[in-house]
Amino acid sequence: MPDVRLASPQGKWVLLTTVLGSSMAMLDSTVVNVALPRIGRDLDANLSALQWTVNAYMVTLAGLILLGGALGDRYGRRKVFVVGVVWFALASLLCGIAPNAGVLIAARALQGVGGALLTPGSLALIQASFHPDDRGRAVGLWSGFGGIGAAVGPFVGGWLVDGPGWRWVFLLNVPVALVCVPAALRHVPESGDGSAHGRFDVLGAVLGALALALVTYALIEAGEGGLVVVVSAVAGLAAAVAFVVVERRRPDPMMPPDIFASRQFTAVNLVTLCVYAALGGFFFLAALQLQVVVGYSALAAGTALLPTTVLMLLLSARSGELADRIGPRIPLTVGPLLCAAGMLLMLRVGPGASYLADVLPALLVLGLGMVTLVAPLTATVLGSVSVVRAGLASGINNAAARAAGLMAVAALPLLAGMGEEAYREPAAFDTAFEKAMGWCAGALVVGAVIAAAAVRRPPPDCKRPECLRHGGVTAPPLEGEPVRKRLG
């Protein structure tokens, strides 16, 4: 039984270590958006390169995050977490010294691998280390501090971009890792899952990541046309089919197909795909819109986007309590509709837009929509499967959200008619942004319809979320395995 007490010096070190580790990955998935215009100018990169700067990270993270959790269970969560932090820091260093866009994109892909190793381990270490009497409070502090990090991330990122330069957005991870790794090795107890057995589903992970990468490439380069784009699209679909076949035949698949036998689980993941495709596309384009069209500095753009995260951090726990009382169907229907309304309000954000009159109202409505839906979404995912599979269900849902976001970043510029130099032409970008917000709002409405038609109240004895506060905008919180499995 874990015996670390939260009030002890070791408990405080465990909490600090896991917060630092998870914050590294969470911040890099959001603050990079603020730095994109400056990266494009400094490296003479076109819009496709900026899309890949975001998506190279998301491809490897989404494709490998389930495998990362399995590696921690088998070989030790602290060990894999430390490897992930070191990997992430070295990849961040490579990002920070990248001489051109190609090296930066490759380094971002390596960052995603590190993120896939450390992200599942952060919460798992909290759950495995603390005494049961302190575990709930420790998880609450971990998620709360992580939410604060997510809230200040775009602000810090904007300050770095306008000050020392965009490279420090990545280089800042190195000193954080230099604190995190020794603390983990000295103070965090090792843990694992003694019941973990069988072979790792490496083939499934590789096929999943390959399918995402090839389809993403085809979408980003579709505007250029050509045989390579067609071959990439066909190969990506073939890899996706092969992934399904492999998962059906393996004795220990990372994504067991039978988990989708639950109609509730399938429905809520479809809602997740719609919601996080819209959110991923929005936060990618909004940071550009505020700088390219409205004329904000990177710091002003990062600060402008804070209200959504702050609202989630302050109100997500209450939203979860409300959903427990009334059921998830209404929140998962109303939440996406509020987000859609917020994105339509962003149509007012153009040249000369006022922050108080135009930008802030849109972000407040969007933030309230995210508050309304994120906590019930997680609770419904956990409640749609058996208790012993709750951690797996959360991992699949988290990966689905990240995959949806990267597909949106790849597809939206194509759907909106953005050319390769659009982010250098304010008028052209503004027109395309308006079209993109329409696509995002449409995806959210589809998600609301699915929720209204298919989501039902989970059974009363299902696993409940432990991360009651959440500030991330790229994916729902990643829940761990149930206590009874670990301690029983």
UniProtKB/TrEMBL annotation:
Residue ranges, annotated region (Disordered): 468-488
InterPro entries according to UniProt: EmrB-like (IPR004638), MFS (IPR011701), MFS_dom (IPR020846), MFS_trans_sf (IPR036259)
Transmembrane residue ranges: 12-36, 56-73, 80-99, 138-160, 166-188, 200-220, 226-246, 267-288, 294-317, 329-347, 359-387, 436-455
Species of origin: Streptomyces tibetensis
Membrane topology: Multi-pass membrane protein
Subcellular location(s) per record: Cell membrane
Keywords: Antibiotic resistance, Cell membrane, Membrane, Transmembrane, Transmembrane helix, Transport
Domain of life the protein comes from: Bacteria
Domain Major facilitator superfamily (MFS) profile: 14-459
Identification of the protein by name: MFS transporter
